[in-house]
Amino acid sequence: MSQEIAKGRMLKVSVLRFDPNDPKDFPHMETFDIEEADGMTIYIVLNMIREHQDNSLKFDFVCRAGICGSCSMLVNGRPTLACSTLTKKLDAHFTLAPLPLFELIGDLSIYTGKWMNGLNERLETWIHDQEEELKFDKLEERMEPALADEIYELDRCIECGCCVAGCGTIQMKPDFVGAVGLNKIARYHLDPRDKRSDEDYYELIGDENGVFGCMTLLGCEDVCPKDLPLQSKIAYLRRMMVTTALK
Amino acid sequence: MKIIYTDVLIIGGGLAGLRVATGVKERGHDTIVLSLVPPKRSHSAAAQGGMQASLANSKMGEGDNEDVHFSDTIKGSDWGADQEVVRMFVHCAPKAIRELAHWGVPWSRVNRGNRNAIMNAQKVVITEKDEAHGLITARDFGGTKKWRTCYTSDGTGHSMLYAMDNKAKQSEVEVHERLEAISLIHENGRCYGAVARNLMSGELVAYVAKATTIATGGYGRIYSVSTNAIICQGMGQAIALETGVATLGNMEAIQFHPTAIVPVGILTTEGCRGDGGLLLDKDGYRFMPDYEPDKKELASRDVVSRRMTEHMRKGKGVKSRYGDHLWLDITILGREHIEKNLREVKEICENFLGIDPAVDWIPVRPTQHYSMGGIRTKHTGESQTMKGLYSCGEAACWDMHGFNRLGGNSVSETVVAGMLVAEYVSDYLDSPESAISIHTGNVEKFIKIEEDKIDALLNKENGEDAYVLRRAMEEIMMEKVGIFRNGKDLQDAVNELEELHKRSKNIEVFRSKSRAANPALFNAYRTQKMIKVALTVAYGALLREESRGAHSREDFPKRDDKNWLKRTIMTWSDPNATMPTASYEDIPISNMEMPPGFRGYGKDLTDHHPETHIRQSTVDMISQRLKAEGANRFEIQNALMPYLGKLPKKYRETNERLGENV
After folding, report:
1. Which stretches in chain B have pLDDT values below 70?
2. Which residues of A touch B95 (CB under 8 A)?
3. What is the pTM of this model?
């Protein structure tokens, strides 16, 4: 095996804990000691703590493979996916905290899904077309292969919320749609199946809570676990929106 | 006590559940979806490699159609599938994929002209037709005669689920997130909804509905290592089983995927081998051609997993501290291909193994992956024994996979079954028999029962630790109910699981006593349910004294059609019993379009049923006569096994494809 590593490092894992359902509780740090094992991820660490040290510890994992976006949290203050973070890449003492800005369920468990649902409804992130009835017995509509690949590139967003937590603008403007929202608009704008016009998109994001709110701090792209080209897409949308506004 | 009324309660917000929801909404019915997680985080998102649909657009898919897809699926199932259901499925798969294309899935497309590919470790040039340019393309997958697996890079499930969830939002489908159905409400053999627990507040809510659909996926997490998401714990099957009325089918039919990474069990898609990747042993030797000279790495999943295990037993595995493994080599595909078509695989290798799959071999071994068994239903998705209860997708035993599912047929099943079940449920809702007649007092009794169970778990003293029981169950399943099975181990497994089941009645939730978001509490009641599900798997496997598809008995190596051409049916009618009850449902040969035959792997070890050759000669006679009379393939098929009448009317039309019916 290629991933032989020094075994037996004692890890100190400090977790920001708080149970909003418990009126007596208040936010506090709690530190757990755990022996490192080969190939250990934060997913394994947290489950071992829950199973052997504190069964009330709250956190969210679903796929544990970096594809569902459930387990985003702050690792040493930086938004990332916990499941695909190997402990060997961290110092022996590290801290875990829930992503800021989202509703807290308890400890490291946050409700990113609720925020994302709101965003999707607000931006109407679905194909808009006027066709009356879908003819699913006929040959499908053709699409240029390169365009399909380009749409997929932007479709890879997993709505984990890291870009939102890493965004400076949203700290000041809570209604800002964030890189996740702008990326979605870029995705649908690229898609010829969506018949919305530039003016329609302008209605959605042509203001300070949309594409003109971004301060270009690049935090979103730095922390995106899927390496989405967020900044170039935001820049593209901004040019497009300016052109639309001047029409 | 809170009671919420709706027309259709859908339990599970993955591809299958969401497709049913949009379908019933379109028919004008009200629906609520309960989901453990935000729907976009469902396990459907983890499907990487693709969705089978016989579009026949790409060069290597030429000549494909419903008949070829049908035959591949039946062979893949080792003749365990319901052939009418498979026909319904292969007929609707092209419709489902075109619908999804319309809803926004960026399917990878055919690019006209020459392209390089790897086939059987050789570089080849494939020339795509001009007229196919821009249509949906497909890749090769195991156990298929044609390249039929349509994809978006290796994030197919993700793209499908996102398009589906967005469509559901457009249709204003109401989703109640972080709600877990913990029991079904039923009376006189009729299902009226479910009692659900809010995983944030702990509140118990009764959802009363005319029809209830379970689409909660598989039960892979009863094994200690599984490719499944950690929420795939078989809760849908468990609550159906606990009614004592609904039945589970073929629970012992468990698929092991050949290539999950070691040790964590995360999947690398079959697309790796479909695109030309090889399996190598500790000497870097490509061993699959020795075992399966014809299909090699692309034999059916059950076959490849067994061959890999056999090869490791011969001492050819690579030793590691996590046990033996083999290598998956995709370096020959080249960096450009990997970074475009196998991106998730690349990220998984980087993040979890610290390797670059364009340069390094990937450590893999067969790992629990798919549950062919599930809630036994009719072709309409309705339980055979409980009125008003439906199920579809991996949660169900519909039964289109029999004893082995083909890669690419699962996400395909979710959307096809989803669109069909939506129609059947809607028809039921439109009929007077769907009227609700349960007294609210009786609904409240169901809530009370669950409240009492939760009280018991929290108030118990000197009880059992749920984690200890759960880990024991996982190990038993892994070691004794795995790829190769035998009577002695299975008997031990059943005995040990029965003992665990008895102990699980004594589970105590230690320390953490909160009724709200309390992981110790949900682990406790889920463990009780998981052990019951595990018992149906192990017990079914013990009783089935033959080898069929993924169920491989070392002490009964032959497929025994004489005695075992039947589905295992499990019930748990007495709540105080410590074991489920098994019965069997015959799979009749007399109406099969494709009577049992040889799958084409290894030696033919089948004990054939006496009726097989009678039916085969009838099939041959009818086909030859009609062919001579100039009948087309649809007419011949219809004469052998008519099925169109079972489909909802809107889905009966013939599919267009290049060069056919256009």
Report:
1. none
2. 136-137
3. 0.97
